[in-house]
Design brief:
Distance between the termini: 82 Å
Structural class: alpha/beta
Helix content: 40-55%
Subcellular location: Endomembrane system
Strand order of the largest sheet: 5-6-4-3-7-10-9-11
CATH superfamily of the largest domain: Spore Coat Polysaccharide Biosynthesis Protein SpsA, Chain A
Protein name: Glycosyltransferase 2-like domain-containing protein
Main location: membrane
Bound molecules: uridine-5'-diphosphate-glucose, manganese (II) ion
Number of strands: 12
Number of domains: 2
Strand content: 5-15%
Oligomer: single chain
Pfam families: Cellulose_synt
Number of helices: 27
Membrane topology: Multi-pass membrane protein
Shape: globular
Length: 736
């Protein structure tokens, strides 16, 4: 009976889809009219030579780019779905596949050791058969701090895991559990529980103190020149640990070899080493990838994922189950849109209704086989396999579907196996192989997740998106402007790298996946190009306003209604989606603001970075996101104040643009009031007004704030100089 019940259900959001499609239809009719208007006026003015062509062309080009990206966006709206899972219907534990958890860390300064260890411990505490769970930590910093901390984490886990199991604790990340006000569920008043909790809490405090001591006494310098270190953390029981406390998943520390002469391909490189190392140690058919800050918040996520992986109908083509990225440090106002609402609440559901969402870096359960490229068990020519997978015989053996290494009989790894592991963790191992190109996580883009996912979908794999009410994983999101923009620049750079490669989703995708799915991928790859229209629309109409040149229809013109409609329709749609996903009018304004800020800064720099990498002018780099908390910045964040303690490189463009908009609005209003304007320029007046209103906090940061997070007068001055240069040079070009 039980077997006949589905393990999961997929619900198509019908009314939402109908509304979306209707909106798409109406909006595209309006856009067509707008394009018709622009084209016809342009032809006319080329004939008559009565208006300056350049600003018209720029604004028209901007509108075309915006319309194009908008069109791609509609693919997400076509068939949004949501899913529910029934883990209680899963087969018995002995039929569940084993899981290798991969956690990556790189920098003990930016990624506090105690938080990384909390992630490790929460993964060890997953609600899954303990003999089927293996946790690997990749330490790209090669820091002995991390290795020592893992030994401590292991010791603490010996207390923590039994405690969680005995009392069915839901929050299995100790830091989160102990900072919660109340117990997470159930009746936990028994004296036994209280004694145990006090005892475990005491152990946790000791654990933290030990980590602190390790950090004080050990160098935290990240080494780019070191041999591989692989260690199975397997401390013999100390003190009074009872025998039944010892049921622990295997925990492995991996620090791959690094040499300055070898590219190391950042996180993708680290994950590929983990794939190989784990292949020799546990070779589990399923892999969970986690960033070091993403702790497991729901211990049942593995079982939820298995509801899809064990469904014989979808499983053969299912590569991975993706959970959303959610963050525990984002507050209610979320002034930086750190939760990435649109991505994880709208776009990923849209993807899910097609062939599935992209790999999202962290929080996904992936089939190992999916990452092994075109390998099929029939492929038995060893030489050919070695060309793809490298020279390790042991690793080639592990490719066999049912190969189960038997390394744990004696406890530690044998010296022979350790040698082989060191070979596959060496930096030269991938030379002349297909690793990073066809096998494993791919290296073409710094956004390894996006590109790897895209390739999987190109090969016919599918994915599903699982977004349960209780977040499966929780990490740290950006809570200050600089971090947000640095991270955004890296993402954009990675996306544009794909957009301008031969893998451009619109060219490479449509023949390999459904057209709608490739549109979604293309939208992600192309959205950085928002920087072009946003730069144009933030300057050209304003410049023309100052010079009294109209670019938009007058109120009496019937096309005025078209422009108004396009503006209102896109904003109302955005607003509707914000409301639908639990946001407010404030969320809507914040998202508009952050979109503008990102478009003129990180979209621009990221695009530039990608082009420079492509032309060989720059090397790829990966600046990890800061996960450590700065108290002062945290306080400003809590107060909902934008933090302008950011690089001038980011501040100057947005402030310059704002000053241009303020100037043009003032001049424009003066022109109207003094009757100096021969046309009505309602739209051109509205544009800077809108920009200024949405970005009011920046003005506040320039003029009113006195705290450390304000905009420094020197930056304002510099930006004013840029604005003045632009306005005078621009006016001169226009008149000329
Ligand atoms: O050389 C490196 C650089 C980074 N990392 C790890 O990669 C993870 C992600 O790095 P982070 O600095 O947190 O970058 P984010 O921009 O916050 O990460 C997002 O974007 C990445 C792609 O740029 C994805 O890989 C991540 O999963 C996704 O959360 C972290 O655990 C790092 O420790 C490495 O292991 N080696
Ligand atoms: Mn991160």
């Amino acid at each position: 009976m039980q077997n006949s019940l589905p393990l999961h259900l997929c619900h198509v959001q019908k009314s939402c889809a109908i509304m979306n499609r209707l909106h798409t239809l109406l909006h595209s009719i309006a856009l067509t009219a707008l394009i018709y208007y622009r084209a016809s006026i342009l032809i006319q003015s080329i004939k008559n030579r009565d208006t300056p062509i350049l600003p018209w062309l720029l604004v028209f080009a901007s509108e075309l780019i915006l319309s194009f990206i908008w069109l791609l966006n509609q693919a997400y709206r076509w068939r949004p779905v949501s899913r529910v899972v029934f883990p209680e219907r899963l087969p018995e534990d002995k039929e569940l596949p084993a899981i290798d958890v991969f956690i990556c860390t790189v920098d003990p300064e930016k990624e506090p050791t105690v938080d990384v260890m909390n992630t490790v411990i929460s993964a060890m505490a997953l609600d899954y058969p303990v003999d089927k769970l293996y946790v690997y930590l990749s330490d790209d910093g090669g820091s002995s701090v991390t290795l020592q901390a893992m030994r401590e984490a292991w010791r603490f886990a010996k207390w923590w895991l039994p405690f969680c199991r005995t009392y069915g604790i839901k929050t299995r990340c100790p830091k989160a559990y102990f900072s919660e006000e109340e117990d997470d569920h159930g009746d936990f008043r028994s004296s036994e529980f209280i004694t145990d909790k006090t005892m475990v809490k005491e152990k946790y405090e000791v654990f933290k103190r030990r980590l602190m001591r390790i950090r004080e006494n050990t160098s935290m310098v990240i080494s780019r020149d070191h041999s591989p270190v692989v260690e199975v953390i397997n401390d013999k029981p100390i003190g009074t640990v009872r025998e039944d406390h010892a049921e622990m998943p295997v925990l492995v520390y991996v620090s791959r070899e690094k040499r300055p002469s070898h590219p190391y391909h950042f996180k993708a490189g680290a994950l590929n080493v983990l794939l190989r190392v784990s292949g020799l140690i546990s070779n589990s058919p399923c892999i969970l990838v986690l960033d070091c800050d993403m702790y497991c918040n729901d211990a049942t996520s593995a079982r939820q994922a298995m509801c899809f992986h064990l469904d014989s109908k979808i499983s053969p083509s299912l590569a991975f189950v993706q959970f959303p990225q959610k963050f525990y440090n984002i507050n209610a106002t979320d002034i930086y849109d750190g939760q990435l609402r649109s991505l994880f609440k709208i776009q990923w559901q849209g993807f899910d209704g097609l062939e599935g969402p992209p790999v999202s870096g962290t929080g996904f359960y992936m089939k190992r086989m999916a990452l092994y490229g075109s390998f099929t068990p029939k492929d038995v020519d060893i030489m050919k396999l070695k060309l793809s997978y490298g020279i390790s015989n042991e690793f080639i053996k592990s490719l066999g579907r049912n190969y189960k290494p038997n390394v744990f009989n004696g406890g530690d790894l044998s010296s022979q196996l350790l040698k082989e592991i060191e070979l596959i963790a060496s930096c030269a191992y991938e030379n002349q192989t297909k690793w990073g190109e066809k096998v494993g996580f791919l290296y073409l883009s710094v956004l390894e997740d996006y590109f790897t996912g895209f390739n999987l979908h190109c090969k016919g794999w599918t994915s599903v998106y699982c977004d349960p009410v209780r977040p499966a994983f929780l990490g740290t999101g950006a809570t200050n402007l600089n971090d947000l923009l640095v991270q955004g620049t890296r993402w954009v750079s990675g996306l544009v790298e794909v957009a301008i490669s031969r893998f451009c989703p619109l060219i490479y995708g449509p023949f390999r996946m459904s057209f709608l799915e490739s549109m979604c991928y293309a939208e992600l790859a192309f959205y950085p190009f928002y920087c072009l229209p946003i730069w144009c629309l933030a300057t050209i109409p304003q410049l023309c306003l100052v010079n009294g040149i109209p670019l938009y229809p007058e109120v009496s013109n019937s096309f005025f209604a078209i422009f108004t409609f396009v503006f209102l329709s896109s904003h109302l749609k955005h607003f509707q989606e914000v409301l639908l996903t639990g946001g407010s009018i404030q969320t809507y304004i914040i998202e508009q603001r952050i979109w503008m800020i990102k478009s003129v800064t990180c979209h621009f720099y990221g695009t530039l970075d990608a082009i420079m990498k492509k032309t060989g002018m720059r090397e790829a780099s990966f600046l990890p996101t800061n996960k450590a908390v700065d108290d002062e910045q945290a306080l400003r964040y809590q107060k909902g104040k934008l933090d302008f303690q950011a690089s001038t490189m980011f501040l100057a463009p947005m402030i310059s643009l704002l000053i241009i908009n303020i100037t043009s609005l003032v001049v424009g209003v003066v022109r109207v009031v003094t009757g100096n304007s021969s046309h009505d320029m309602i739209i051109q007046l509205f544009l800077p007004f809108f920009v200024i209103t949405v970005n009011y906090p920046i003005i506040e940061g320039m003029l009113l704030r006195k705290d450390k997070g304000r905009i420094l007068p020197s930056v304002t001055l510099l930006s004013s100089v840029f604005a003045i240069i632009f306005l005078s040079l621009g006016s001169w070009v226009l008149i000329y």
